Amino acid sequence: MSQEGKLTLDKRLALVSFTKDPRPFITVETELCKECEKKPCLYICPAGVYTWQDQLNYNTEGCLETGACLVVCHKIGAKAIHWKYPAGGKGVSFRQG
Amino acid sequence: MSGEGFEVAVVGAGPAGSAAAITLARQGVQVLLVERGSFPGSKNVFGGRIYTYALKRLLGDAWKDAPVERFIRKEGITFMSNDSAFTLEYEVKDPEQSFSAVRAKFDKWLAEQAEKAGAQVITDSLVDDLIVENGQVKGIIAGEDKIPTDAVIACDGTTTGLARKAGLVKMLEPQQISIGMKDVIEISPGTIEERFGVDQGEGAAHVFAGSCTDGLRGGGFLYTNKDSIALGLVVGGDDVSIQAKPSHSLLDRLRAHPKVQRLIKGGKNREYNAHMIPEAGPRMLTRPFTGGMLVAGDAAGHLLNNGYTFRGVDMAMIAGMAAATTILDAKKTKDYSAGNLQSYETRLRKDPALKDMYTFSKVPSYLRNRRLYGVYPEIVCSAAEAVYRVDGTGKKKIYKEMRAQTKGKVSTLTLVRDLLAGARTF
C-alpha cells in the first residue's frame, strides 16, 4: 500500500501547467537571508520554491502564487522577498483547483 | 483594452467578482470584469465544496446549470493517530445543500453568466494599480491601460494588492493565514461510489484531525468529485514556519495514513495545487471600503472556518452581491464617497449568511489551541482502541478507561476549560 504514498514534490509540480513569465516576479535580497534565523520561506512554500545551500536559492518556475512566502518573510524572516504577480496570463494555470 | 464607458471595474473573476458583475450588469450598469489568469478559475484553488444557497440567491433556478461534481451526501470527520482512525459520519437529509466543484470549471461558468448578463469580461490582464484622485479611487491601471470608472470592486484574492494600495490592509500576520495544498487523484466514478457508499451523482466530504499535521494547527480534507478525489491539507502559517516542517511534507503524512491509502488506492495523480487562506476573516481589513472602492471575497477575509465546516465561495458570492447592491444605491446620487459606501459594511453584518462570520469571530483564536491537533485526537483514538480491543487481559468500564487514557496527557482542569471555551466559541 505504500505505492500511493510516494509522490515527490517534483512529480507533483510536473503535473501543473505553467506559462513562463520572462520577467522575474519574485526577487530576493539573498544577502539579507544570511542573517535570517528562522528562514520561514523554506517551510511555508508548498512548491519548494526556496532552498538553502550555503545561501538562499530560489526557482520561481514552480511558483503556485500563494503569496505566503511574502507574509512569513516579512513577519518572521528578514524582509528579503519582493513578490508580485506574474504578468497577466502568465504563471501557473490550474485545471483542477 | 478600451477605457471608455465603464461605470464599474470589478477586479478578479472569482465567485465574489462574478457575483458582483452579474448583479450590476443585470441592472444595466456598464461593468468591466478583469481577470489576470488566462481564464476565470485558472488561478483559483479551494478544498472542494460550495454551499448551494448562495448560488440560488444569485441565479434563481438557473443555478441548476452549474458544473456540479457531486452533491454531498456524507459528512465525515476522522481523528487519527499514526496507525488508527476514529471516524464520525453523518448522512445529510438533503444533499443538494452543497456540492463539490472544480474551480477551473465553476468560476469559468460563473464568469460566463456575468458575460451573458452584459458584463465585459477580460482575461490575461493584471491590474497593477488604482487611479486615485483626492483620496478617491477613480479607476484601475493595468499595464499601459488606464481605465477610469465611477467605482471599483476589488475581488483580487487573499494577497489583495488593491486593498493594500488603498491603505485598507497591513501586511497579514503569519498566524492570520494558513497554507492549503491538495492532490487531485483520478478514480473512476463507480469506484468512488462504492468506496464512499454513496449513490450515483452523490459524494462525500471529510475532514481529518490529528497525526496528519504532526501537532501543528491545521487538518486534512477530502472531497469526492465526479471522477477524482481532492485530498488536501491546511496548516497554520505561523506553525509551519516556526516548527520548520515543510508544508507539503504534511500532505505526505496525510496520504500515507492507512485509512487514506485505502480511499485513494489505485488512483492516478492529476494535479497538485495550493492556496493561501486568510483565516483572520473580515478583521484582516481595517474596513472593506474606501472612497470609490469596495473589497469582497478572500480579499476581505469573507470566509469561515469553524473547524468542521469550511466556507468561502458562498460567502464570496453573497459579499459580491452586497458590494454590487451598495454601488447600485450609490449610483442613484452619483456619490461614491467613503461616507456613502459605508453602508456596505452594515449590509455585510446584517446579511443572514454573512453574519455567521461575526458570530464565529472568536473561532480562529480558539483553533490556535495546539491540543486540538495533538493530544486530543490521540486520546480519542487510544480510548477507542481500549474500548474495542478484546485480548483476554480484562477490560475496564468505559468511563474508567477514558479517565485512564487522559491521565498524564492533559489535566482534568485543562480539559474542562477547553470544553467550556469550546461551548462558548461554537
Quick tags:
heterodimer; A: 97 residues; alpha+beta; Alpha-Beta Plaits; two-stranded antiparallel sheet; two-stranded antiparallel ribbon; 6 strands; 23% helix; globular; disordered N terminus; B: 426 residues; FAD/NAD(P)-binding domain; D-Amino Acid Oxidase, Chain A, domain 2; 3 domains; 9-stranded mixed sheet; 6-stranded mixed sheet
Biggest interface: A-B, 45 and 62 residues
Globally, the shape of chain A reads globular
Number of helices of chain B: 16
Please tell me the CATH architecture of chain A by its name.
2-Layer Sandwich
Average pLDDT of chain B works out at 94
The CATH class of chain A turns out to be Alpha Beta
Q: Structural class, from secondary structure content of chain A?
A: alpha+beta
- The percentage of residues in β strands of chain A lies in 15-25%
CATH third-level topology of chain A: Alpha-Beta Plaits
- Name the overall outline of chain B: globular
Uncertain spans of chain B = none
Q: Compute the gyration radius of chain B: what is it?
A: 23 Å
Query: Would you list the SSEs of chain A in sequence order as H and E?
Result: HEEHHEEHEE
Query: In terms of quaternary structure, what is this?
Result: heterodimer
Tally of individual domains of chain B: 3
How many discrete domains of chain A? 1
How many helices of chain A? The count is 4
Provide an overview of this structure.
The complex is a heterodimer of chains A (97) and B (426). Chain A is an alpha+beta fold. Chain A has one domain (16-86): Alpha-Beta Plaits. Helix content of chain A is 23%, strand content 21%. Chain A is built from 4 helices and 6 strands. Chain A has helices at residues 9-14, 30-33, 41-44, 68-75, and strands spanning 17-19, 26-28, 50-53, 55-58, 81-83, 91-93. The longest helix of chain A has 8 residues, at 68-75. In chain A, 41% of the residues are buried. Chain B contains 16 helices and 20 strands. Chain B has helices at residues 15-26, 52-59, 103-117, 161-165, 189-196, 237-242, 247-256, 258-264, 313-333, 338-341, 343-350, 355-359, 363-366, 375-388, 398-406, 412-425, and strands at 8-11, 31-34, 49-51, 70-80, 85-91, 98-100, 120-122, 129-133, 136-142, 145-148, 151-154, 177-186, 202-210, 218-224, 228-236, 268-278, 289-290, 293-295, 304-305, 310-311. In chain B, helix 1 (15-26) runs parallel beside helix 3, helix 1 (15-26) runs parallel beside helix 9 and helix 14 (375-388) runs antiparallel to helix 15 (398-406). At the A-B interface, helix 1, helix 3, helix 4 and strand 6 of A face strand 12, helix 6, helix 7, helix 8 and strand 16 of B.
